[in-house]
Amino acid sequence: QVQLVESGGGLVQPGGSLRLSCAAHGTIISVNAMGWYRQAPGNQRELVATITSGGMTNYADSAKGRFTISRDNAKNTVYLQMNSLKPEDTAVYYCNAGIRRVGSLSHYEYWGQGTQVTVSS
């Protein structure tokens, strides 16, 4: 089975920066779109940014101008560069990917384990 492994979360002060990484591991045939979502306690999970296999990006209004999503197809890895962080960015961040694995004709949606991002002074 495919696993998405996240890293890069932590504690930063307002205005600071973090870079999240998410690598897909397993018997993978292909990876379609990848993305980042976040969820704060008591809130629903919300989209932050997505990127297609060809590099086309989409951002939530709250992330636009501050966050940058990118990917390395050779490494099956997606990144999220977060700048000018605000306390309201505090959440667990989850990566997401549409992946076709060996033995399947279809792409299925996979989720990472989540990484905590805390923005506080």
Structural overview:
There is one protein chain. The protein is an all-beta fold and 121 residues long. The chain is built from no helices and eleven strands. The strands form two sheets. Strands 2, 4, 5, 6, 9, 10 and 11 form a seven-stranded mixed β-sheet that branches. A four-stranded antiparallel β-sheet has the order 1-3-8-7, with no helix packed on it. It is elongated and about 50 Å long. The protein starts with a strand and ends with a strand.
Could you give the topology of this structure?
Blueprint: E1 3-7, E2 10-12, E3 18-25, E4 28-39, E5 46-51, E6 57-59, E7 67-72, E8 77-82, E9 91-101, E10 108-111, E11 115-119
Parallel strand pairs: 2-11
Antiparallel strand pairs: 1-3, 3-8, 4-5, 4-9, 5-6, 7-8, 9-10, 9-11
